[in-house]
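Per-residue structure
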Amino acid sequence: MKTRDITQIAVMVAVIIVLGYIPPIPIGLIPVPLVLQNMGIILASLLLGRKNGSYAVGLFVALAFVGFPVLSGGHGGAAVFVGPTAGYIYAWLVTPFLLGTLLRSHQHLAWEISATILIGVLFINLSGALWLSVTTHLALPKALLAGLIFLPGDLLKSGVAIALHRRLRLLDQFAAVEK
């Protein structure tokens, strides 16, 4: 692994942590608030690809598991991994691999938007709703319906992540031409 890769991974872990310290927005209908941290997961997936994105998210999740207060609201520790929000965390672990795999050979904007919505919004929310249903004994249709509350915000966060990714990629290409 190159120094550049390690640096990018460390920066993305820091970005994900910082996004977690932005206060969550409580919904009230379900015990899971709207947070910006998953935008960092999507951004890590887009910017770093499936391998380094997986390293960044894996490192972030490992920090949370051992007790560092890196999750939204300053949470961390093994107990979080069996609570009602754990399904989102487990989905985060595979998001860079899935999204990176889908985007590996296609860089068209329409494909990037579709893949990001499929993995970064629908897959994460479906996983979160399934876990919520199991841990809180909420009927699955109700958990899925409750998860719909997150779709507008998650679509917006995905759009911001895609815009940042495209802008940074453009700047990187411009810098390469300048050399």
